[in-house]
Amino acid sequence: MPPLPPHGSVEARFLASARRLVPPVRGIALVVISVFGLLAVPDESLPLGFALFGLVLMGAGVDCWAGFTGRGAMLSLGFAVLRVAAVCGTQEWTGGPLNLWALNMLTTTAITLQLEWSPAVAVPVTSGLLAVDLVTVDLASAGTGALGTLLPRLVFECLLARLGFVLLRRSAGRVDALRERRSALARAEAASLARHQEEREYLALLHDTAASTFLMVTVQAKEMDPAQVAEYARHDLAVLTGTAGGATAQDSTVDLTAALHTVVDRGRLAVDVRAEGTPLVPASVALAFVRAVREALVNVERHAEVGTAVLSVREEGGRVVVAVADHGVGFDPDGVPRSRRGIRSSVVERMVAVGGSATITSRPGAGTTVGLAWSGV
Q1: How far is it, in rounded angstroms, from Cα 314 to Cα 324?
Q2: Helix, strand, coil in percent for the chain, rounding step 5
Q3: Rounded distance, CA 108 to CA 87, Å?
Q4: Distance between alpha carbon 108 and the CA centroid of its chain, in Å?
Q5: What is the pLDDT of residue 340?
Q6: Which long-range contacts (CB under 8 A, 24 or more apart) does 73-79 make?
Q7: Half-sphere exposure of 319 toward its Cβ, with a 13 Å CA cutoff?
Q8: Which residues contact 310 (CB under 8 A, 6 or more apart)?
Q9: For the chain, does the N or the C end have fewer beta carbons within 10 angstroms?
């Protein structure tokens, strides 16, 4: 016997549907067969016919109750055997040997048993019902043709029913296997995307911290105080190890304007901070703003050929909007090589990762504006 499928699988739902639907279908079908069978009963045997019809109705009620409630499967099986045995055992008085009422009751019951029970139950029960039918047939008068006609038909119909049931169950199992494979692929893809996102985040973080500090030391080695370099290095190490915030930090609400002041205060640019209101954002969002603004200010310092910039912070239409603007030499954003990760990773992707957005507006000779927005307020 095949192992039970996992709960909730397509195969499990198929088996549950078979157990729920087959008994009521059998009960209703036998009632319809019995209506036509009763019409063929001789007048002198009508009391017997009505008694058999009453038994069929009672069995149909049990079948429907078992199917709708999921209980009483053995009681339904018992009534299935009792109905067929009663109709087959009395067929000599209700229409003669091998009459259609008995034959159709037997074959319908045998077929539905293949869809409801395992072969360990269905085969012995079907064999017993066939034996009851054959015993009641007057072989002396009907000849050996009764066995030669009924047995092949019953076996063939039961085999077809069992084969159809097995094929449907295997198809349901294949659907489950395909769904599991698709889920595994989806999980693997999600894990791969998460790893790539972490790698991009780490590269952007490295670009914002250690790489920027190394470049500053290289360019301004003679002008920088060693103590200041050590402070930068300690800060970069704290950010890279997570002790200064990031994914491991508690995502509490912080004052974005105050957080951005920490970036402005440690830079060499003269930054005019224009804040409207006091936007409060989650710590992870504030960290994304801080890192993006830091990168924007570093780019002004390195490339804009000016010593001043304007940082504006405001709430606008349910959004937090931050802008870094300068009146420097400007550049063509479309002409930046993809190998340059500063704008794309440290600014744009970082804001997108927290549900925000970033735009860079610039052209040669007209300065640059980096716009950051987050709409989670």
Answers
A1: 12
A2: 70, 10, 20
A3: 13
A4: 40
A5: 59
A6: 73/19, 73/23, 73/116, 76/23, 77/113, 77/117, 77/121, 77/125
A7: 14
A8: 271, 272, 274, 323, 324, 325, 326
A9: N
